[in-house]
């Protein structure tokens, strides 16, 4: 039986809540006529192409009026949300049966005791219901639109291969068409799809699940303290030391009044914090400290974040320090009458302090410089194409330190050792520059706007996997230095590789400089036949195509500088996660890992003697590596795929069937398997990957997964493997870092993030 017209009463509180939610959402997208047109329906579905919107719309529009009413929408969505697997499968079949016309939705009413219930039911209506089967041409049409919906680009022949793979698997009786029963049988091999089969409109018009929040604050969680213990200890010690310095200095000047106590207390804290600002940017010293026990206690990975924090503290202390002195000057001017308030500010008076009594003048200058440095170092300035403003205002640190020595009589005692180290680091950096600089000898421009630079490597340049350098190319910008991770392995002796994505003004200018046949690139020196042959072999092995160019562009580097990824080789189970271009640190690391892995596996085929005794456990303690790469679309996989292919082949040769290095690829723009607009495509990709042992999107053996990773499942699987202590290393956006950090706290994994 069908319910009376307009009757959509639900039997449970949950269904009533869902009905209320759908009605509200319907009102947001429907026009004044309370009907949804095709364009409004397409917008609500959030589909990229109109094919699926038109198919769903035609199936939802049961009366053929060209619009969808609230009743029709409720009936259709009830089927997709509350219907059985069979109901959803029949709907999916009708979507793929392109020459099918219409499907009819309704409810079957029934009762059990005192409970009245209704079940969504589906039936075909009208004399013309299509062929009732899916032929290869129909399947090819749907898969073509599936590719466009997931922003995947494949050659026409690959589309044919996908169609053939899915059709051969589903056409059990080899009749030349797929019936509903055959499609159902094929889908039963994908139970996770059957459980979650839906479309975006059904999930969008479903009430959001209530968030379960813990009553305990996150900062009191044991896992949080475990993962942040170094940072928390450092912050605690930093705060305690500032308070101690403040109170000691304030008590020492207690006889001179409250304003002087505040000013002197802040002044002593400023001595410490202005020195700490310099210490936190001693990159060479910090890199050296990473191999010492200090790295286990002090969070060296956060040195840039702490530098920014201390900068804000310095400005706050300076403001309070200046305000206290101004209040004291006002008090002295009113009580003594020897000097006016303006004299205390702008005249050199011995009783004020400082070299020659210039404490007031140097203090005001310092306040202005610090405010300017902080204002022009904000992200909105650095990332809006005005990096040179940040660069030149930050160079005023020389003036700040000079004024501090003149302003405070005891600052030099704090600054002498860090100042000398800072000068030595700068001298070493200048020595690299005065040595004549280096040359960019090759460049490869990738369509994803990634510039691959090959730089000649000096014999004295030694670095660790994952390290980064500062790069200056005078032809791009004379004074700008930018940090980039080295993407070549240290074992590669001849050259350094950098992969630079065009995201800002400088990187875009770099890409444009090397782009086009008329770019002003100096011609390289003639190469010998042997060197030319060696380069051609490297282009083949690394996948460099026709876009590579030989050149001779002058550049300067400063570094190398260490990163958290240096801890990878001391891990037992390392999980490497890169988002987009954030994969660059792991390019070098993965190459070095496989190099050391090969060395560890080398032995004599006759006596099985291993000649790798020099490879100590602390140099390579890894038992398992999980590599996760998340990209938005297909083209961003291209620059790194050749290297990953090489690593897969090497592992297959060294350890057939081995799982030492396991790769996981995710493409966020691709629709997941539980979406009706992608289920056929993802099934076809799975079938073809199994048949060819190769992924159609990247060409790797590893299958590219659609959508975003389910971190709970990913880390749950890692924890179940029990391959040793797990450490997670991430390079990517701060938003994703927060999500991954929270999951690491849940599973008790150590978390490390790249900071430049």
Automatic annotation (TrEMBL):
Q: Is Cell inner membrane a UniProt keyword of this protein?
A: no
List the molecular function annotations (GO) for this entry: calcium ion binding; superoxide-generating NAD(P)H oxidase activity
- This protein's UniProt keywords: Calcium, FAD, Flavoprotein, Membrane, Metal-binding, NADP, Oxidoreductase, Transmembrane, Transmembrane helix
From the record, give the transmembrane residue ranges: 232-252, 258-282, 389-406
Keyword RNA-binding among record annotations: no
Q: Gene3D superfamilies under this entry?
A: EF-hand, Nucleotide-binding domain of ferredoxin-NADP reductase (FNR) module, Translation factors
Cellular component terms, GO, for this chain's entry? NADPH oxidase complex
Instruction: Output the InterPro entries linked to this UniProt entry.
Output: EF-hand-dom_pair, EF_Hand_1_Ca_BS, EF_hand_dom, FAD-bd_8, FAD-bd_FR_type, Fe3_Rdtase_TM_dom, Fe_red_NAD-bd_6, FNR_nucleotide-bd
A Pfam family reported for this protein in Swiss-Prot or TrEMBL: EF-hand_5
How does it sit in the bilayer? Multi-pass membrane protein
Task: Name a biological process GO annotation.
Answer: defense response
- EF-hand domain residues are 48-83, 165-193
The FAD-binding FR-type domain covers which part of the protein?
430-567
Q: Where in the cell is it found?
A: Membrane
Protein name as it appears in the record: NOX5 oxidase
Organism in which the protein naturally occurs = Ramphastos sulfuratus
